[in-house]
């Protein structure tokens, strides 16, 4: 091999190695650059939010029933506004994150083992249509009848939805002052739904076993045009523009919504902005859980 050829190969190899090294170095530099829009590293963002002091945390301790030392209060007060910045920014800007009510959670709990099927992907409800028996003469007996019998009486036109709806509205009027279980009574819409159900059933347009049957929705379920408060004072005047899926499906089934029922504020215990919901079987105690 001539000297010139040997030198050419050496120089070419060195050039290729140099180019590869430069390329890798540039790639490494790019990976360390922060992409546009990335939130600041923890604790490095400008301080935001209200000014706080150790005494602020001392007062907060009384609410959450914890105790901090003087040093811990001072530390919390010193970094609170910096630590809060990434979260505060998403509420006030510039990168405000507004999540619409229709957006589902990013994940769901799925207990099925990998590779196993979760069960039927579809199906059809088959109603056995048991004989509901004769309609009781006593309204109290009608009120306590199971939905299977109510549905049968309504379908067979032994009982109208309007009569049944009025029966439950009257009971809500009578017992709610003691129980405090109703947040919004929906008398007019309920009676309109009941009359429509009776007309449809009389015309042979029976929708199914829930057609004309009254029901009450926990005030956690959105109802278009009717307040949905979560039982919490800050949401007392909140009026959603769309129905929750379960409300829509029950409406489509012809069920009659008579009331938005109480729940503890933000679905916690039995105390809401209207008072404490009481146990109907023991009026001296509360109804306990959020859905009771």
Structural account:
By secondary structure, the chain is mostly helical. Among the domains are: 54-92, no CATH class; 139-276, Amidase signature (AS) enzymes. It is built from eight helices and seven strands; from the N terminus they run H-H-H-H-H-H-E-H-E-H-E-E-E-E-E. The strands form three sheets. A three-stranded mixed sheet has the order 1-3-2, with helices on both faces. The protein has a two-stranded antiparallel ribbon with strand order 4-5. A two-stranded antiparallel sheet has the order 6-7.
Quick one: overall form?
extended
Summarize the main sheet.
3 strands, mixed
CATH fold descriptor of the domain at 139-276: Amidase signature (AS) enzymes
Strand residue content: 5-15%
CATH architecture tag of the domain at 139-276: Alpha-Beta Complex
Task: Describe this structure in a few short sentences.
The chain has helices at residues 3-32, 54-64, 70-92, 139-143, 147-155, 161-179, 187-202, 245-252, and strands spanning 182-185, 214-218, 256-261, 271-272, 275-276, 278-279, 282-286. The protein is mostly helical. Among the domains are: 54-92, no CATH class; 139-276, Amidase signature (AS) enzymes (Alpha-Beta Complex).
What keywords describe this structure?
292 residues, 7 strands, 8 helices, 41% helix, mainly alpha, two-stranded antiparallel sheet, Amidase signature (AS) enzymes, three-stranded mixed β-sheet, single chain
């Amino acid at each position: 091999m001539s000297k010139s050829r040997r030198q050419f190969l050496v120089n070419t190899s060195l050039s290729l190695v140099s180019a590869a090294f430069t390329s890798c170095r540039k790639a490494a530099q790019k990976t360390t650059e922060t992409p546009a829009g990335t939130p600041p590293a923890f604790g490095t963002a400008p301080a935001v939010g209200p000014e706080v002091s150790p005494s602020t945390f001392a007062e907060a301790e009384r609410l959450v029933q914890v105790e901090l030392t003087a040093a811990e209060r001072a530390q919390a007060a010193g970094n609170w506004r910096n630590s809060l910045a990434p979260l505060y920014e998403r509420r006030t800007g510039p990168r405000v994150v507004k999540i619409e009510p229709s957006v589902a959670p990013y994940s769901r709990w799925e207990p099925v083992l990998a590779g196993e099927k979760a069960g039927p992907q579809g199906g059809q409800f088959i109603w056995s249509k048991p004989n509901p028996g004769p309609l009781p003469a006593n309204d109290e007996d009608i009120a306590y009848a199971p939905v299977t019998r109510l549905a049968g009486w309504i379908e067979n036109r032994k009982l109208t939805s309007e009569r049944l709806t009025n029966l439950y509205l009257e009971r809500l009027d009578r017992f709610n002052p003691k129980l405090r279980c109703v947040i919004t009574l929906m008398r007019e819409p309920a009676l309109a739904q009941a009359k429509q159900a009776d007309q449809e059933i009389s015309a042979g347009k029976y929708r199914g076993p829930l057609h004309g049957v009254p029901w009450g929705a926990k005030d956690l379920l959105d109802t278009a045009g009717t307040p949905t408060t979560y039982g919490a004072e800050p949401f007392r005047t909140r009026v959603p523009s769309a129905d929750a899926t379960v409300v829509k499906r029950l409406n489509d089934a012809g069920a009659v919504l008579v009331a938005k029922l109480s729940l503890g504020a933000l679905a916690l215990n039995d105390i809401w902005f209207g008072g404490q919901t009481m146990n109907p079987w023991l009026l001296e105690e509360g109804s306990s859980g959020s859905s009771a």
